[in-house]
Amino acid sequence: MALLINEECINCDVCEPECPNGAITQGDEIYEIDHTLCTECVGHYDEPQCIEVCPVDCILIDPEHTESNDQLQAKYEKLTAD
Length: 82
Prior knowledge:
Layout: E1 3-5, E2 24-26, E3 31-33, H1 49-53, E4 59-61, H2 69-81
Antiparallel strand pairs: 1-4, 2-3
InterPro entries: 4Fe4S_Fe-S-bd, 4Fe4S_Fe_S_CS, PSI_iron-sulfur_center, YfhL-like
Cofactor: [4Fe-4S] cluster
Keywords: 4Fe-4S, Electron transport, Iron, Iron-sulfur, Metal-binding, Transport
């Protein structure tokens, strides 16, 4: 499952540098997560780091991009192979 940032985002800038895959970028109004790069930190950490540091709890599971742990691990391996 990829993650998403909802409209409660306050643009505090703490999530972006925590993402080991570079999946978080500043959007037009709030930060956004690229689902093609998001592995929910599988392969890097035990928990998604963006969720851990978010002060307003605006980062949720994206229901439109669900993936199993095996799929997230495969995505991690593909992203780190380059």
